[in-house]
Amino acid sequence: MGMQGEDIQGGEPRGLPLNIKILPEHLRGLGYTTKLIGKWHVGYHTPQHTPLHRGFDSFLGFYNSHVSYHEYKYSYQVHILIVKKL
């Protein structure tokens, strides 16, 4: 499994195919709690394409590209959204 080609930009109507079950979905089925910290860089144009609908119990990070974790002057000004499924 993989995605080739250009990065998925914000608002593009594409993402990781929903018919492909990814690792956190398998792990959740086995009773594990899952968390994603970092970039979700595989599409988010519908709620079903976001981490909380793809097997993650919580997510801390960015949905899109072009955010650097290493540039302190930029990163400290970014508002971070913590999302947890109820």
Automatic annotation (TrEMBL):
It holds the Pfam family Sulfatase. Signal peptide: none annotated. The lineage of its organism: Eukaryota, Metazoa, Ecdysozoa, Arthropoda, Hexapoda. The gene is LOC105422737. One of its GO terms (molecular function) is metal ion binding. It comes from the Eukaryota. Residues 14-76 form the Sulfatase N-terminal domain. Keywords: Calcium, Glycoprotein, Hydrolase, Metal-binding. Gene3D superfamilies: Alkaline Phosphatase, subunit A. Belongs to the sulfatase family. SUPFAM superfamilies: Alkaline phosphatase-like (SSF53649). It comes from Pogonomyrmex barbatus. Its cofactor is Ca(2+). This is Arylsulfatase I-like.
